[in-house]
Design goal:
The protein has 566 residues and is an alpha+beta fold. The chain contains 8 helices and 27 strands.
């Protein structure tokens, strides 16, 4: 064997040995890393959910029995009594007319609430259009942004669109270009002008210091000082999205037979658009909606007038106007815009609930007797208001009744004539009762201990006379489909839920026992515990979503509870 062959063989043997060594060491490192990977603790949702702590019934869970079914009709600020059909001592049957209301004012409120909802919907459209623009915005790096800022600083003091003469360039140390035509401005190859708003028209500069109202009261001042309430010079008010007009203001306008126009802007602070306008005609009692509220007259692009130093009428955009944004800026603005849309959607749902109550007032202009008995008293409307007593009070001949409460969120689900179950706390016996009336105003004494912001509206349910119930006895009321059982609901403390933009998620045990991100739909917030509407089941296992090892694909270890997760 030659010297050269012996060297090649030796080199080959060393190479193989090195490869084996590296593989062994590398495998050992990988094995050690896998062995040192710390498992993330997970626990069953069933043990972490505190949904059973809360009562989610849409029906207020306590009432007292009152002997002798009765009916009381109280003063309502938004309804004016037109006619009373009974007097004290009269005998009435179920269905007899008691009082009729003039629903003109409630009808106006109803129409304005519809306009309010349309305004919110229009604002949601506008916000969604801006969100799409953000998602499609030009993205630049931080380096490019710095260069843009430098260009802006360099351009400062030089008016865009103005052509400097050759003498001016010479004085500034530049080489004059005698071939340049001083009569034509330097126009960029692809100028990018400002985009038109997708909905509405630009907010007038002269209105920027005027008051924008969230609620129009009788003391609200119109922004047009020359307005006199006529059709030619109506009072004009600037309104925030979702603004309301109270009953006192409407009565004042009806009495004065005044015409008002409400100009709705896109946002209360620093508005940029006038979305649409609508009119309240106090002479006819009508609300006049815009002809086309979804596209309320978008003006054409304004033409910049010619100036001595800008003969072509073109003004070059300021450097950086269309330069785009960084990825971080885009993400932040998208998150803010999505939250705005979420808030507007909540406003819309609240307004829709209020509209349902107004619908009921307008449709129930005549109140009928819900009991068979005797008219106990009939008071003057003003007297009843001052003394907080019923305008009309009717006492039933027999039987007993209970005053229950229906949650605001389910107000429209309860109907007169429905059957409810009344269960005695003393005996445990249950009896059927019939709903005879549902109130229009919430009862202050009925409050949810879990959700103090929840309002309950009263309803009267009459129990058959042969029921073994005593006056003053405590009972529970249940209605099929409304008395929910919270035992199967999932409520997790906020710390177990993370957010990704406007989406919520948890970490749960996935395939092969590895951790995975699970998006969930959230609902009610009960003292810091969030309802999980969908995305999780009681059988799933979740992790505390923070920590170095918490990431998709991490190993998991099941424990009984995560409240001791150290």
């Amino acid at each position: 064997m030659t010297f050269q062959k012996r060297n090649k063989k030796k080199i080959l043997q060393i190479g193989i040995a090195l490869v084996v060594c590296v593989c062994f060491i590398g495998g050992g490192i990988i094995f050690a890393m896998k062995k040192s990977e710390k498992a993330v603790k997970i626990a069953p949702v069933a043990s972490m959910s505190n949904g059973g702590w809360y009562s989610e019934s849409d029906i207020y869970d306590y009432a007292k029995v009152q002997a002798g079914a009765s009916q009381d009709i109280y003063h309502d600020d938004t309804l004016t009594i037109k006619e009373i059909y009974v007097k004290s001592g009269d005998t009435v049957k179920i269905g007899d007319r008691l009082v009729a209301y003039d629903t003109t004012l409630a009808g106006l409120e109803q129409e304005m609430k519809q306009m309010e909802i349309q305004g919110i919907e229009l604002n949601i459209q506008n916000q969604k259009a801006e969100l799409e623009q953000l998602k499609n915005a030009k993205i630049v790096s931080s380096v490019e942004r710095s260069q843009d800022e430098l260009r802006k600083m360099t351009a400062k003091g030089t008016r865009p669109g103005i052509i400097r003469t050759a003498d001016a360039k010479k004085n500034e140390g530049e080489n004059p270009d005698t071939s340049e035509n001083p009569e034509q401005p330097e126009t960029p190859e692809n100028p990018e002008g400002p985009e038109k708003p997708s909905i509405g028209k630009p907010f007038p500069e002269e209105l920027k210091n005027k008051i924008i109202y969230k609620e129009i009261t009788k003391d609200a001042a119109p922004y047009n000082e020359d307005g006199d309430g006529t059709k030619e010079k109506p009072y004009r008010y600037l309104c925030a999205p979702g603004a309301t007009v109270n009953a006192e203001f409407m009565l004042k306008m009806l009495e004065e037979r005044a015409v008002c126009i409400f100009d709705v802007v896109d946002q209360e602070k620093e508005p940029t658009l006038l979305l649409y306008s609508w009119t309240l005609d106090g002479k006819t009692g009508q609300v006049i909606k815009p002809e086309n509220p979804e596209q309320p007259g978008i003006p054409e692009e304004p033409i910049i007038p010619d100036e001595p130093d800008n003969p072509g009428g073109y003004e070059e955009p300021d450097p950086g106007d269309a330069d785009g944004m960084t990825r971080e800026e885009q993400a932040k603005q998208i998150q803010e815009k999505e939250q705005k849309i979420k808030d507007l959607d909540l406003e819309k749902r609240t307004a829709q609930l209020e509209l349902k109550k107004l619908d009921k007032k307008v449709n129930n202009g005549v109140v009928k007797s819900t009991v068979e008995g005797t008219v106990k008293s009939v008071l003057d409307e003003e007297e009843a208001k001052l003394e907080n007593k019923p305008v009309i009070s009717v006492t039933g001949k027999n039987g007993c009744y209970v005053i229950g409460g229906i949650a605001e969120s389910s107000y429209d689900k309860l109907k007169e004539g429905m059957t409810v179950m009344v269960t005695s706390w003393n005996t445990g016996n249950s009896y059927e009762a019939t709903i005879t009336s549902i109130g229009n105003s919430p009862v202050e004494s009925m409050k949810s201990s879990e959700n103090p912001n929840m309002s309950y509206y009263p309803f009267t349910a009459v129990v058959e006379k042969d029921a073994d119930l005593s006056s003053g006895e405590g009972v529970s009321i249940s209605v099929d489909g409304l008395s929910g059982d919270s035992g199967n609901s999932i409520y997790l403390e906020r710390m177990f839920i993370r957010e990704d933009g406007n989406r919520s998620y948890v970490y749960k045990k996935g395939k092969h026992g590895r951790l995975e991100k699970q998006y969930v739909e959230v609902g009610k917030n009960m003292y810091g515990s969030i309802e999980i509407v969908s995305g999780l089941t009681m059988e799933d296992e979740i992790a505390f979503p923070y920590g170095r090892n918490v990431k998709e694909g991490a190993k998991t270890k099941t424990v009984e509870s995560l409240y001791d997760y150290n």
